[in-house]
Specification:
Helix content is 33%, strand content 21%. It has a five-stranded antiparallel sheet with strand order 8-9-12-11-10, sandwiched between helices.
């Protein structure tokens, strides 16, 4: 019998005890982390970040980069007055500056450096404020790139293919998002984010506002949508209440884990496929 006078071990001590048996491979490590989550030694956010750290070492620049065709660039010979709308509308803080074509990246413009133009337009020269571009192969591992970003204090790199052509663009934010999830700022357009995002394996991050019919089409499920419209409403209906962060609900071979919620509604869910099916939700 446990001694009531003995201090209760901290969550870190309990987690250490759970992981005391050294896993033989990464799959066993992930299984132990999920066991820790199920025992409430880790919350859903911590579990997601640890898995993100593990996945970063398996990803390369080309897995997260912005494709060449989607990069907002500025031309070297472009007048400052004409490039300002691009800078303002995009909301980016850094822009590749190109010469003859998109493969000819001659520098990186920091949006804040354009303040010098407004201070003294007559003496401003775009070439004088450009920062040297950093080129990395698109096959560079993300964990190595993150280390390089930290050591050089760069926030952006141009990804090149095996022939030296520009393949895309990668930022430190792109790498960090693989660990902590999407980082939104005031320039991110509302309502345009992906509602269902594969995380890794058979796990998906799903907005609670996802329409049930869209969810059914994606996961090949048959949840009724006659009384409820959203996945968040479905989960609350099954639970009978607004579940808190970290709580789970198993329905029709899927496990729903609450990643983000407040006292009134759900915001984000983690959905993973499991190997058994429970009773289907009541359709009335």
């Amino acid at each position: 019998m446990e001694d009531p006078g003995k201090p209760r071990p901290s969550w870190l001590e309990r987690l250490s005890a759970l992981l005391l048996r050294e896993p033989e491979d990464r799959e066993q490590l992930v299984e132990q982390l999920h066991a820790a989550f199920e025992r409430n030694l880790l919350d859903a956010d911590a579990l997601g970040m640890i898995e993100g750290v593990l996945s970063v070492s398996e990803l390369m620049v080309r897995d997260v980069m912005i494709p060449r065709s989607q990069i907002d660039v500025i031309r070297q010979d472009e007048a400052i007055e004409s490039l300002l709308p691009t800078v303002i509308n995009s909301g980016h803080s850094r822009f590749p500056v190109i010469g003859n074509d998109r493969d000819d990246v001659i520098g990186i413009l920091l949006a804040k450096d354009l303040l010098r133009y407004f201070h003294n337009p007559e003496t401003f020269s775009l070439a004088d404020v450009l920062r040297p571009p950093i080129f990395v192969p698109e096959t560079k591992p993300l964990n190595v790139l993150l280390t390089d970003f930290r050591s050089t204090r760069n926030h952006l790199a141009i990804a090149v293919d095996e022939y030296g052509g520009v393949a895309g663009l990668v930022t430190i934010e792109d790498v960090i998002e693989q660990i902590v999830g999407d980082i939104e700022d005031e320039f991110d357009p509302e309502g345009e984010e992906e509602l269902i995002v594969p995380v890794r394996g058979q796990r998906y991050r799903v907005s609670a506002l996802t329409q049930i019919d869209n969810f059914n089409a994606y996961f090949d499920t048959r949840f009724p949508d006659t009384e409820l419209d959203t996945v968040g409403g479905l989960v609350m209906s099954v639970c009978g209440t607004v579940p808190k962060r970290g709580e789970t609900c198993d329905v029709e071979g899927l496990r729903f884990t609450v990643l983000k919620a407040d006292s009134r509604r759900l915001h984000t869910l983690l959905v993973e496929k499991i190997h058994f099916s429970t009773e289907r939700p009541d359709s009335h």
